[in-house]
Amino acid sequence: MILRGAPKSLIAGSVLLLGCLFPATMAWIWHGGHAPFIDIPNRYAPPSLAHPLGTDPFGRDLASYVLTGAFNTTAIALLSVVLATVIGTILGLVGANGGKRGWAVMSATDLGLAFPPILIAAMLVTAQGASATGEILAIVLFGIPAQIRITKQAAQSILVLDYISAARMAGFGSVAVTIRHVLPNIAPILIVHASTSLALAILSEAGLSYLGLGAPPPQPDLGRALASYQIHIFDHPFLVAVPGVTVMVLVLGFNLLGDGLRDLLERPFARNEERLP
Amino acid sequence: MTDLLSVRELSVLAGAKPILHPLSFTVSAGETVAVTGESGSGKSTLARALMRLLPDGFKTSGQIIFEGQDLAALPERDFRDLRGRRIAMVFQEPMTALNPIRRIGKQIGDTLKLHGALSSPDIATHVQQLLDRVGLSHAGVSAQSYPHALSGGQRQRVLLAMAIACKPALLIADEFTTALDSRTQAEVMDLVQELAVEHEMGILMISHDLGVIRRQAQRVLVLQQGHLVESNETEQLFDTPRHPYTRALLGMSLHGTNHPPLTRIPVPVDVSEGVQP
Amino acid sequence: MSVLLEARNIQYSVSGHTSSVFGSRRKTVLQDVSLHVAEQETLGIVGSSGSGKSTLSRILTGLAQPENGEILFQGKDLRDAAGQVRKDIRPKIQMIFQDPQGALDPRQTVRQIVKEPLHQMALSNEEKERRVLEVLADVALPQDGAERYPRMFSGGQRQRIAIARALVTRPSVIIADEAVSALDVSTQAVVLNLLLDLQERHGLSYIFVSHDLAVIRHISHRVAVLDEGRIVETGPTLSVLDHPQQSTTRDLIAASL
């Protein structure tokens, strides 16, 4: 079996994520990406066969609403992380190769780190109104500097090795050396970082839409679900618990996945050094 | 002369695989004993077993009598107190042993703080004395320096200062000077010898370099694939080796015998690359 | 014997750590270094760390450019040589590195590693594959090792892979930077024997850079002593090492006895 020997955290993370994201995807497809129907007379309904988790203050099916929201939140987080990873990795590699361009990239990174992402999101909302695009932009801008730093550091630890010199002697230029030797060797670090960044991106997405800086209603979203249900924390605590736990499961799932991937990917190649002489 | 360290029937198992077969030896105060052998001989395992630094899955048995008490039977807490204070260890890799972002004076001071009850001004004076003693002050290195500003030899001197800070009775040096060039190597090893005489310190030196061993050690233990095959006074070992493996090792070493230049070195078939663990 | 590779008046410096408002002061690494190696000859370069010997080997292989001075291969200046000539000459100068861990990309197979230097050479793929197998046999590595990864080999075998990579372009001169320093006694003996065999078989020249006088003494015909970026003494190996004229050389000898 493939799972044998796989790190426990990898299995736990995958189970959590599958358990959450598979029904989320189903719900999203079922509702065509929209929020479930509003049915005011039927609000605050207790769990039943028709509504497994009951209904919310607008009479919407809570399970469907939260699952569709989980899908949207994850989709926005995933898109943001992919963008941040691609852009950050390219810039990080430019930075690692040094020279004037590298210096420019690293200086811009330092400057970028000085801007709080929440401020960027608030500015974007003021400029063009709340939208998913603005939210993605904020999360991407937040992720890029860290991605640049991690990529640069990892790449630099490879660039000093002798096989890089050997490749240069063979006539490969900086770009070819990067693609042939640097990227494959830093890929595990990048994959692990992407996975843990996803956990952070989910939190950021939920946080931004909680503050009303995300995609506008009626698009279901975990952050806004929390925001709109929070006034019921005492009379209907279940309403707040469901989206809250969903965020927690997603964050925990991606963190565990990252830990597991770290064990899985970085282990076989570290074994040489670990072996006692 | 009483034995400072007396190892009796020490063996190490990795799972069910024997890494070190039962072996016994002693180290007296002020004496330098070298342990040599090829990769996979178990020499580093021996050092780590003595310091209880073996990873999980390794099982040590036998007695390690140090200053009259059996270390193997000592609870972890008492052992931790002993390690660093009475028994110190220095490694090959100074960059991983030193914290890159702390000044070296602080790092040496930490060792003192951990084991002694010196007041802060006393620590500062003591650190300064240590830096003087290992010849760093002389080279313009101050307690305020960071590790990266030092050369390889200077970093080894910092490690040495940390190791001798509490005036240990036994110093275990695992391939301590291997990464240094011969001149720096000789300087650092000479310093170790001076300190040994000064503090009546026993030294257990792990090295594959027969040249260094011949210069520094009074006695030599030769390990082959986890077996102690020969233990002898240095002079006798080099002049009249008894075990065939010792003879083979000396025969292949450029330091052991005077080979005519530009000729093939005789390599017994059973030794050549058959030393893989 | 005719001169194969020659360095003339090499000058190299790096920008120092201490910079002032007047600009950073440059630290001289190599000063007026001249040396040569003849066909089928081994030149040993000895020096402590900080003597500039690693920089010198990088300059000789073209990995670094000297500020001043010239590198001549069979009398042709490598800087002046036009693109094609340079492309022809570069493969003739190869290098073996010190660290058997860092010298081989852990994610490439032995075949990919050994084939890499042929990248820019005008050879058919069949010819390249044939050469890879040829050099693997040359360094006595099993043929089925070609599809394996470096971590599956011992330290000595990894160094053989590195030697195979240097041989695959059929070079005239190989620069070895501390090539046997990190190895065990027996592995060191085996690799030194292999290098002597290869020299005989292919008529190779070596420039052997090391701090280890015992190694230099064993393998070099001539030796140059490098100290603080200058060559302080040079001559036939035994006459320099047995009758050193300079105090630096005497210190080095005393330290390695």
UniProtKB/TrEMBL annotation, chain A:
Keyword vocabulary terms for this entry: Cell membrane, Membrane, Transmembrane, Transmembrane helix, Transport
Location of the ABC transmembrane type-1 domain: 70-258
Pfam families associated with the record: BPD_transp_1
Main location per the UniProt record: membrane
Superkingdom as given in the UniProt entry: Bacteria
Transmembrane segments: 75-96, 103-124, 130-148, 189-213, 234-257
Membrane topology term: Multi-pass membrane protein
UniProt-annotated location(s): Cell membrane
Family stated for the protein in its record: Belongs to the binding-protein-dependent transport system permease family.
Protein name in UniProt: Peptide ABC transporter permease
Organism lineage: Bacteria, Pseudomonadati, Pseudomonadota, Alphaproteobacteria, Acetobacterales
UniProtKB/TrEMBL annotation, chain B:
Location(s), subcellular: Cell inner membrane
Chief location category: membrane
PROSITE patterns, A to Z: ABC_TRANSPORTER_1 (PS00211), ABC_TRANSPORTER_2 (PS50893)
Domain of life: Bacteria
The ABC transporter domain, residue ranges: 5-250
InterPro entries: AAA+_ATPase, ABC_Ni/Peptide_Import, ABC_transporter-like_ATP-bd, ABC_transporter-like_CS, P-loop_NTPase
Record keywords: ATP-binding, Cell inner membrane, Cell membrane, Membrane, Nucleotide-binding, Translocase, Transport
Membrane topology (UniProt): Peripheral membrane protein
Record SUPFAM superfamilies: P-loop containing nucleoside triphosphate hydrolases
Gene3D superfamilies cross-referenced by the UniProt entry: P-loop containing nucleotide triphosphate hydrolases
GO terms for MF: ATP binding
Similarity comment: Belongs to the ABC transporter superfamily.
Protein name according to UniProt: Peptide ABC transporter ATP-binding protein
Organism: Gluconobacter thailandicus NBRC 3257
From TrEMBL, chain C:
GO molecular function: ATP binding
CDD domains xref list: ABC_NikE_OppD_transporters
UniProt-listed InterPro entries: AAA+_ATPase, ABC_transp_ATP-bind, ABC_transporter-like_ATP-bd, ABC_transporter-like_CS, P-loop_NTPase
Coiled coil: none
Residue span, ABC transporter domain: 5-253
Assigned keywords, A-Z: ATP-binding, Nucleotide-binding, Transport
Family per similarity comment: Belongs to the ABC transporter superfamily.
Name used for this protein in its record: Peptide ABC transporter ATP-binding protein
The species this protein was found in: Gluconobacter thailandicus NBRC 3257
